[in-house]
User: Which sequence fits this backbone?
């Protein structure tokens, strides 16, 4: 595979053996961005190579991209919105500071639905990102720019933000790997808030091993984020990848692979389950019936929180004035303002919070019986640009399998499992217990090795030659 298809560890070796220099590698990806970004619309901003580096860091010299939702000192940060069109933050998000500290080089900031509101990047106030597998289709959202960039080999890995699917959905639609971490595992400091009790920061990459490598660098306590975990030293995620799965149990929620899911997607997941059975894993049915209320609960809580978070963008301290908000942000602020208002709070916000607790309890009960849970990421493969954008409720439903996971705060790994008849990637997600990322990475890694699903990614990359 040419350089653009290589994983972090493969590039690490090339750099260490001086087959390529750090600046050559950076320039190589910059050229690829120049060549392919005009057709993909993945990047909002590109960066110059930074001088701050850590020669001994595992990520030293590796070019990466970040969703434009993270504050980067001296580099424009828009969150996909015209409100922050000219905003240049005076500080770094912790995740960025940590990656710089590991020696990684930021190559650019990628497109997203404004404020994280959406599933297709069509709510970006700049442009819509195209799916590298078929330019007529969406790349997913809200971290769609990340999905497209990694899947077309324009950056080696990326950082996204997932409030209700925004890492997993674009990973799924673009045929890459994405991890939504346990709430609190990775600091949210400097991430532009969408819904603070649901927001998580996590890696997107071409392989499960890469995800584990990145996670070791970004996980752990941050005094600037009061909700961050107290792990001072995060676990060695890379050392557990090869563990045996014999005797482990996968739970499949009743009805999840039958109703409302594209038969081809469901078939691909069922075939993947057979591979896990070969490893000695037992598949059992579990009950997550409260998750049928997840979309309602999520959209009440997320809009309530976003109405509060977006109130700070008043045009006085930073950014343009409130007229610059797009329609979706306005819709969500109005809805959230309503659900939090006296007289309606009990009927909507409080009820949604109670449902959230019930969903969380359902997950806890299920995890008494099984090690991980497998579900679809999205009911379908990527949809066409324009297909759902005029029907907000239909767009909200595309995250039907994702939002319950954020409500419960548990981790989930989205990985590819095949390519559909239409030539679009398919996949599934592996959900784990709180702070049990090592188990879902272990399951993902074994599957990756056995199926060579990396082949899915390579197939997508074939059309993005140097
Ligand atoms: N599509 C969901 C929403 O619009 C999820 C977005 C996200 O995870 N940021 O709320």
Assistant:
């Amino acid at each position: 595979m040419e350089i653009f298809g290589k994983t972090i560890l493969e590039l690490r070796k090339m750099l260490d053996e001086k087959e390529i220099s750090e600046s050559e590698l950076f320039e190589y990806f910059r050229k690829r961005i120049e060549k392919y970004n005009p057709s993909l619309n993945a990047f909002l901003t590109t960066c110059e190579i930074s001088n701050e580096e850590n020669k001994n860091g595992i990520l030293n010299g590796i070019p990466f991209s970040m969703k434009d939702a993270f504050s980067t000192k001296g580099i424009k940060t828009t969150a996909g919105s015209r409100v922050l069109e000219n905003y240049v933050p005076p500080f770094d998000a912790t995740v960025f500071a940590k990656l710089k500290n590991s020696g990684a080089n930021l190559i650019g900031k990628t497109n997203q639905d404004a404020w994280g509101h959406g599933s297709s990047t069509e709510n970006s106030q700049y442009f819509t990102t195209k799916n590298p597998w078929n330019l007529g289709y969406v790349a997913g959202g809200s971290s769609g720019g990340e999905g497209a960039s990694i899947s077309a080999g324009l950056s080696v890995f990326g950082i996204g933000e997932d409030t209700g699917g925004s890492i997993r959905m674009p990973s799924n639609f673009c045929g890459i790997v994405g991890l939504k971490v346990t709430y609190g595992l990775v600091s949210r400091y400097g991430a532009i808030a969408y819904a603070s009790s649901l927001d998580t920061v996590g890696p997107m990459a071409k392989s499960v091993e890469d995800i584990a490598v990145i996670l070791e660098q970004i996980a752990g306590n941050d005094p600037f984020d009061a909700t961050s975990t107290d792990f001072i030293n995060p676990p060695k995620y890379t050392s557990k990848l090869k563990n045996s799965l014999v005797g482990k149990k996968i739970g499949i929620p009743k009805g999840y692979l039958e109703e409302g899911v594209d038969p081809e997607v469901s078939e691909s997941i069922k075939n993947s389950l057979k591979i896990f059975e070969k490893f000695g894993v037992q598949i059992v049915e579990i009950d997550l019936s409260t998750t049928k209320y997840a979309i309602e609960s999520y959209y009440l809580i997320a809009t309530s929180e976003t109405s509060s978070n977006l109130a700070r963008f008043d045009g006085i301290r930073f950014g343009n004035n409130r007229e610059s908000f797009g329609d979706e942000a306005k819709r969500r602020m109005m809805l959230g303002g309503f659900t939090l208002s006296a007289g309606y709070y009990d009927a909507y916000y409080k009820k949604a919070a109670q449902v959230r607790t019930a969903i969380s309890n359902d997950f806890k009960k299920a995890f008494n019986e099984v090690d991980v849970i497998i579900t679809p990421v999205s009911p379908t493969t990527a949809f066409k640009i324009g297909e759902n954008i005029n029907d907000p409720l239909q767009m909200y439903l595309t995250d039907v399998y994702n939002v319950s996971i954020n409500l419960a705060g548990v981790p989930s790994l989205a990985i590819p499992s095949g390519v559909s008849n239409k030539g679009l990637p398919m996949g599934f997600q592996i959900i784990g217990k709180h702070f049990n990322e090592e188990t879902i990475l272990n399951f993902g890694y074994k599957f990756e090795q056995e199926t060579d699903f990396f082949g899915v990614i390579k197939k997508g990359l074939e059309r993005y030659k140097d």
Q: What stands out?
A: The first strand starts at residue 43 and ends at 46.
